[in-house]
């Protein structure tokens, strides 16, 4: 399984030269196994995808963790949705008040977007994520609701004997600095368990988090502790705060590594990086 990081930034895109190293595009990754592809989230990173790689695909699957703008902002500019020969399947969390289609329609309609969802030329098929594992091609996909404002899921994608967990926006302990003793009380735990790769929120420094408890994000330490407890084999820290310069983010990461010890690799997500598991 190959994973491409097309957008690693949280909240909003940034083009500053001080955020260029880790990348300015918002959340989007692509998973590739042989010729089968999945797109996870449709932040501005989706526009980094090589559209030619989809030229012969009749069907494209886009899985959304949630509908915050940084995870859907690129959707209306993803070229294949304007190709009438394409069938685009969009998967996202159901909600208690409005169906996924109505919530997507709020963004993909005037005045926020010039084209109505119903007028998009490709065949759009919108799915609310099921409560049990499901299959898209070779991939077995599990989604679970996790702690973040509004209906939000994390994903676990499995193929052959490999598993990647993707939880870009997550506050696993909701205001507590330490993990619960009981695994099943920890949001997202099952998704991460024994994963070969965990791509996880780590937006805030310890200091910032003190002022942003309940905002739905977490620190590098919480992400690493979750990874350790769940026995994930590798952690990629994702959803970088756009207000943080890369130099400051790297400094924080070095301090974190110097003051904590984990027996699995941990790295900062870098836009454009490819990971093989
Ligand atoms: Zn986000
Ligand atoms: Zn969010």
Description:
- The chain has 277 residues and is α/β, with parallel strands linked by helices.
- The chain has a single domain, classed as Ribonuclease Z/Hydroxyacylglutathione hydrolase-like (Metallo-beta-lactamase, Chain A, 4-Layer Sandwich), CATH 3.60.15.
- The chain is built from five helices and 14 strands.
- The chain has helices at residues 100-107, 189-192, 206-211, 220-229, 246-259, and strands at residues 2-7, 28-33, 36-40, 59-63, 87-92, 123-128, 134-136, 139-145, 153-159, 162-167, 197-201, 235-238, 266-268, 274-276.
- The strands form two sheets. It has a seven-stranded mixed sheet, with no helix packed on it. Strands 7-8-9-10-11-12-13 form a seven-stranded mixed sheet, with helices on one face.
- The structure holds zinc ion (2 copies).
- One zinc ion binds next to loops.
Summarize the entry for a quick read.
The protein has about 280 residues and is an alpha/beta fold.
Strand order of the largest sheet: 6-5-4-3-2-1-14
Q: Oligomer, anyone? A: single chain
Question: Kindly state the mean pLDDT as a whole number?
Answer: 95
Number of strands: 14
